[in-house]
Specification:
single chain; 401 residues; alpha/beta; TIM Barrel; seven-stranded parallel β-sheet
């Protein structure tokens, strides 16, 4: 059933994320995830945006309005309001600003990329899989100000967080709450990392991929515990006002995992997340972000009971043909993405971006359930006029009659 009445961005996204309802939005919505470096370059001070809840919330809303997006992904947790008291010095360096903290650790803040936390000795803080006790795991937050820690500590806390209902600090959802208040008519999404992604961030890619063969029992025990934390975090996002939650599962494509390993180490845990969130927040959309080569596993991803699939990287970045994905998934799930963020949005010019976005719309619009987006994150140095071309395409060619 078509809808000719103009919708708010929030209403438009909601209709697009529920293709089974038969209710079409007024037009195809557009929502891209921007690389954090893009916010640093185009929406304010990089140190403030990374470290301060309010600064990041303002950056999110500023660029949503500039690019006429229908949705905002809040992809950093809220920050400890007292973070400035921990700063010992801020210096300009060859690769960005160097923050030295009172406890001796250091953060390098590039002008166009994610900051990196290092120990007092200058090395990145890492854990070894053989030293990890699954019973001490609950959730690994790669973007905490203190970096990845094991057992998890928040910010500058001296004691590890205790797994269970009080694990996440009260300020953890401050950014999401602030965005919700500032953009009441925009679709606001929270993010949780999949258990497999969390483990990869904690101990490193090589260790985890080797352990899939050498110690699969240890991997599964870790994934079981990390699922519990992801469920609690996602429920909290909905309580804070999120319209949808994204499960970030970047390492589940064919570049990392075979279909058989996907079935064993990803599918059951992501399905449990979706099922348990649905019990606490019935009817709320939960969707999955997986980069790269996923053309061979769209139906496997559907078996997680996810409501939508994000990125759909086209060749040469990935293996998804949009028309093929639309045929295979129909209107059972919504799909989001397929515009090449590198060759089209970063390296091209506005008119080719517009034409490519129009082509995506024409392919995936029929029957609803499509959100126009770059496949993965918009690169830091993508020209703003190229990004705006997506909204122009959705507004010109995306209407349902």
């Amino acid at each position: 059933m078509s809808n000719n009445t103009p919708m708010t961005s929030r209403e438009r996204m909601d209709a697009a994320m529920r293709p089974r309802s038969g209710r079409l939005p007024d037009r195809v919505p557009v929502m891209c995830q921007l690389a954090l470096g893009h916010y640093f370059l185009h929406a304010g001070d990089s140190v403030e945006i990374w470290h301060d809840s309010q600064a990041f919330a303002e950056a999110l809303v500023t660029l949503q309005r500039r690019y006429r997006f229908d949705g905002i992904l809040v992809n950093l947790p809220g920050r400890d309001p007292a973070w400035r008291r921990q700063v010992q010095s801020v210096e300009e360096g060859d690769t960005g600003r160097l923050i030295t903290w009172r406890h001796g650790r250091r953060t390098i803040v590039p002008p166009d990329d994610n900051p990196h936390m290092h120990g007092a000795d200058g090395r990145a803080v890492t854990a070894r899989l053989e030293d990890v006790d699954p019973d001490r795991l609950f959730y690994i937050e790669p973007h905490d100000l203190a970096g990845v820690t094991y057992p998890t500590t928040w910010g500058w806390a001296e004691e590890p967080a205790i797994p269970g209902p009080g694990f996440f600090p009260p300020w953890h959802r401050d950014t999401l709450r602030q965005v919700r208040a500032a953009a009441p008519d925009v679709s606001v999404h929270g993010e949780v990392f999949s258990p497999f992604s969390q483990l990869m961030e904690l101990v490193g890619y090589t260790s985890v991929l080797g352990a899939l063969i050498l110690d699969p029992g240890k991997v599964i025990a870790c994934l079981e515990r990390l699922t519990d934390g992801a469920v609690l975090l996602a429920r909290g996002h909905f309580e804070a006002g999120a319209d949808a939650v994204l499960i970030s599962s970047a390492f589940a494509g064919a570049g990392f995992l075979s279909p058989d390993h996907y079935r064993r180490f990803v599918l059951p845990f992501e399905r449990r997340i979706v099922e348990q969130i649905a019990e606490a927040a019935p009817g709320k959309p939960i969707y999955t972000h997986t980069c790269g080569a996923i053309g061979d596993r769209l139906e496997l991803m559907e078996q997680t009971d996810t409501h939508g699939i994000d990125t759909l990287d086209p060749p040469p970045l990935g293996t998804v043909d949009l028309a093929d994905a639309k045929r295979r998934l129909g209107c059972r799930l919504f799909i989001k993405g397929n515009v090449d963020p590198v060759n089209t949005v970063l390296l091209s010019t506005p008119e080719p971006c517009y034409e490519d976005a129009c082509a995506r719309v024409e392919i995936a619009k029929p029957g609803g359930g499509y959100i126009l987006s770059t496949a993965c994150s918009v690169p830091p140095h993508a020209p703003p006029e190229n990004i705006l071309a997506l909204a122009r395409a959705a507004e010109a060619r995306g209407h349902y009659r």
